[in-house]
Please model this.
Amino acid sequence: MKEFLYDSASKMSEMITAHPGLVMMLPRFGIELGFGDKSIGEVCRLHGVDAGFFLLMCNVYTFDNYVPTAHVIDSTDLTHLVDYLRRSHQYYVEKRLPHIERHLQHMASALPDRVATVFMHFFSTYKNEVVAHFGHEEERVFPHIEALQRGHSDDSYQIDAFLASHSNIEDKLDDLLQIIFKYLPPQAMGDDAISVVYDILQLSHDLRKHSLIEEKILVPYVTHLERTVS
Amino acid sequence: MTRTRILIVEPSEVIVEGLQAILANQPGFHLLDAAYSTERLTERLIASRPDVVIVNPTLIDQPSAFHDEAPQAAVVALVYQYVEQQRLRAYDAIIDIRQGRSAILETVTAATRRQQGDTAETPNYELSRRETDVLVLVAKGLTNKEIADSLNVSVHTVISHRKNIMHKTGIKSVAGLTVYAMLNNLIE
Model:
C-alpha cells in the first residue's frame, strides 16, 4: 500500500506541486491558495482543520487502491468529516454538475431536436438522482451523526441502513462518456467536447472517491460512535 | 485460459502421427481428431471449432476456404512437397516438415497468438438482429419478463442478450441505452 511521503511538517506547496489534483480538495477544507512556504500543519491550524484528517483525505484522493486501515481511522480526528462531505456535495451540485450541463447543452444544440431532448433528459434525470442521493444523506444521515458527536444517542436511524441503500452514482457518468466517445454524431463534437469529457472523467473519479470515503471511513466511524454513545 | 484447439488436415498417417507426437505434450494445446481428407470437412469445422487448422496446402485451393465455417481459426500450411510460393502467401503461417520440434511449436504458438490478438482487436461490436429487438424493448421500458413474452423467448435468453448489449455498447443503464437507441434511429 502506497502512502504519502508527506506529513504535517512537509510544505503544503510541495505536496500540491507533486500532486496537482489535490488543489481541488482545498476549498472543501476552507483553505485558500497563497499559503507561501507554510507547512501542511500550519496551514491546517490556521483554518481550523485537523492535519491528520486532511492528510487522510489527500491519501484517499491520490492513491487508487488506498483504503485506510481500522487503525488509521481510529487514530484520526474525524469530527469534521461531515462538514467535508457536505462541502463536497455543495461543490458537485452547485459547481460541477451545472458546469457540465452547460457544456452538454451546447453540444446538444447541434443535434436534431428530439435527440437533443433525450440526451439532455438523460443528464437532468441523472442530476436529479444525485441531488436526491445527497439530499437523503444531508437530511437523514448527517444529523444522526452530528447528534452522536454531541453525545446524544439517536435510535431512529442506524448507519447499517446506509450501506444497504447506498447506491452507485458514478455508473451513469460512465454511460454518458460511452455515448460521447462512441455514438454522438460528429456535428455535436465542437471544441468543448474534449473539455466536457475531461470534466466528466474528473467528476466520476471524484464521486468514486466520495463513495469510498462514505463507505470505508464514515461508516466504521459512525458504527464506533453508535457503540460508544448510548 | 482455454486451450488452443488444433485440427490437422493431412492425408498421410505417418505425418499426422509425427506432428501429433510433437504437439501432444504442449500444455496449452488440445488436439482434435485429425482429418485425413477434405471429405465432410465443413461439418467437422463447424462442430469442432478449431482455433488453428494445420493443413496440407495441396488439399485445398485457398486457406480462405475455411473462413465461412471457422472464421476464428488461424490457418497454417504444412509443407513437404513442392508448393508454389504464391499459394503459400495467403496462409497465416507455414510449417516445413524438415523443421525441428521447437521451430514447429514456435510457429503454431505464434499463429495462435496472432489469431487471438486479431480477435481481441476486432471483435464484432455490431448488435445482432435479436439484440436490437431486445434493445428497442428495453428502451421502451419493458421488463425482462415482458420482453421475453413479446419475443417468445425465455427470460434467461433476454438477460443474456442484455449482457451482450451492455458489453458491446459499454452502456449499463436503461436511460443510457434509450439515448443510444435514439441516436441510432432504432426508436422514434
Q: What stands out?
A: The first helix of chain B runs from residue 13 to 24.
